Amino acid sequence: MFEVLEDIISNDAEVDQLGSQSFNVQYDDLFTALNSELYPGVSSFSSLNFLVKLMHLKVMNKWTNKSFDELLKLLKLAFPKIDLVESHYEAKRLMTKMGLGYQSIHVCKNDCALFWNENSMSETCPVCSESRWKMQEGRRTGKNVPYKVLRYFPLAPRLKRLFATSKTAKLMRWHQAGKSTDDNVMRHPVDGRAWKDFDKKHPEFADDVRNVRLGLAADGFNPFNNMSISYSMWPVVLTTYNLPPWLCMKPEYLMLSLLIPGPQSPGKDMDVFLRPLIEELKELWENGIDTRDAGNDRKVFKMRAALLWTVNDFPARSSLSGWSGQGYKACPTCNEDTPSMRVIGKTAYFGHRRFLPSTHRWRSNLDFDGRTERKRPPRRFSSVDIMDQLRRVKTSIPGKHPNYGGVKRKRGDDELNWRKKNGFAGNLSKNVAHNDSRIVGLKSHDCHVIMQRLLPVGCRSLVNKTISSTIIELCTFFNQLCARTVNVTDMVKAQDQLVIILCKLERIFPPAFFDIMIHLVLHLPEEAILGGPIYMRWMYPFERNAAKPEGSISEGYVVDEALTFCSRYFDDIETRFNRPDRNDDGIHRTSRLFVFESQCKPMGKQSQVYVEKNVRDRAEFYILNNSPEIETYLM
Fold it and tell me: Are 205 and 211 in contact (CB under 8 A)?
């Protein structure tokens, strides 16, 4: 445990230009527990060491707080002289000192502004003049209770801790040494065109491989299991793309940055809540922060960070980017050239023949909508074009107050769709309704599994060849797209093939079938070429179910964060970093010969199988030539 505290303190302490440290007295209790024997005469376990491992077991095995308290009582009863805390609450307070903490920032009840920095001492909102505190009958309650509290987890100390131990400091350089040597193969975002273009534009940032590349994910969820309660909480999570592809999206390396309170989703006011994170990201980009590198003799370097992209579903993208995902111009890539039409009370995104070459025979085919297609493909909008569109957008008032930010206004024609400036799968059998054979309650990942694995097989015998072949082609594309290694040439070919597939679908399904999600498939190959493998930029690793209010989530995260860091140093118990894979059965000896060793656990009753002589001769030949144990007898 001394090595753990040494790494924590060395990087958490303030570092000046001379490399000296200012010691923080908050660690006094930790050193006291570290130097205390767990039990008189037992030197192998300190009080702190035992407590950390016990808390780690609690987290790994999902013990309840009550069961942990009962275990502590039993240990105290069985070993009266044991030096141990009295309850889970006391253990959590001690563990929090090894964590990195968070800031509680009050928010206006209408989401107009944060009571932070220049507004930290204000009693009323600077936009709508509403009180900062909850009121009863026009009077403030006895204790000042804010309407909303935003939890902010500072980013810089969490990035510094990645360099605090040699176990992760060297991994933060992987993207430089591990990138693909074949320009046509992508297995990590470093192989994507966007990463390479960023390095060319900012060579001073790319020169130091330790500078951090980040991705930001945001999504809302209901923290209560009872879905009848309308409540939307939004966690904002960051991932580090310096790490190898098998670690980037692991829960242990995802950093909670903001916990946006409910009960309503932030919507267009997402920028208000993101302000603390944006300010820190700007500081890390412009000035950087002094950091000790455990992978380089603890030398101090200036660490900088850059946010490469956001990861979110399509509705959340509207809140983050400001481009509305509804209406005739819903596609952010096609922009104002989005192919759309009004069909039976809804907007359909129909007419993908315009993406075909001008000489393609389907452009003059009347079987689609009875007309020939003469429109050109949508234009390519550069960053300059997008910035010019944003300059035409009127500045909106933040918040949801009915007299201020909550006033609905109609967008002008020149504003386009801009609203503001700124497991493998679940048990699918449980989702089948036996009374009418419908599939209900599927999650998005379940739909991916059905499309990639089940639908291509199931549709062959149910529909005619024209329909089934089109569906299979679409499913095959998603298999290519979601692979761990993506081939650039395959994605370029898929871009042209998708146009044909969507045109085939237009001949099969009515226009009302084509919502914006069908149209967006057309732009996925380009996104893969720019950003690298899709599995490192999708929402599945970030989506987590929870059943706790904001305060409990924040407190639990800080403790879990500390225990995760400590568990990197544990070799004598199972941790998140050394536990075997889910499907790892180990090697099972079923014979003295190496050739008969099984890589999986045998199941069921043994049975004898009689084979023909020629098959037996081939099997004997293989065994004799692949068994090192009998080589000495064959010499």
Answer: yes
